[in-house]
Amino acid sequence: EVQLVESGGGLVQPGGSLRLSCAASGFTFDDYAMSWVRQALGKGLEWVSAISWNGARTYYSESIKGRFTISRDNAENTILLQMHSLKSEDTAVYYCYLGAWQDYWGQGTQVTVSS
């Protein structure tokens, strides 16, 4: 059974940093690219970032480029999202996403950027 478990969210002031983690299990982790997707309250899903199976290629949305960094540890079956210079508009639930033979989502972790 595929499981994606996010952690690391919380409340942070504007300009602050957070690091999100996604622990994956139930599939061959290093066979697949992985993504982060977020959803702000009352809004649709927004793709944030993706990383190739071996970490060699990374992709970012324009809204977070230069502030967020995605990485992965295939030995630990984990992906990370390091977030710096957080803004109020980054407030959202952040989901780990696997697009494989079907779509898989974690339960999400709330990130709130507020003073």
Description:
This protein has 115 residues and is mostly beta strands. 0% of the residues lie in helices and 52% in strands. It is built from no helices and 11 strands. Strands 2, 4, 5, 6, 9, 10 and 11 form a 7-stranded mixed β-sheet that branches. The protein has a 4-stranded antiparallel β-sheet with strand order 1-3-8-7, with no helix packed on it. A hairpin with a 5-residue loop joins strand 4 (34-39) and strand 5 (45-51). The radius of gyration is 13 Å and the shape is globular.
SSE class:
mainly beta
Straight-line distance between termini: 40 Å
The radius of gyration over CA amounts to 13 Å
The succession of helices and strands, N to C, reads EEEEEEEEEEE
Uncertain stretches: none
Main sheet summary:
7 strands, mixed
Number of helices: 0
Approximate strand percentage? over 45%
What is the percent of helical residues? Answer: under 10%
The rough form would be described as: globular
Tell me, rounded to a whole number, the average pLDDT.
Answer: 97
* DSSP E strands, number: 11
Write the layout of secondary structure elements.
Elements: E1 3-7, E2 10-12, E3 18-25, E4 34-39, E5 45-51, E6 58-60, E7 68-73, E8 78-83, E9 92-99, E10 103-105, E11 109-113
Parallel strand pairs: 2-11
Antiparallel strand pairs: 1-3, 3-8, 4-5, 4-9, 5-6, 7-8, 9-10, 9-11
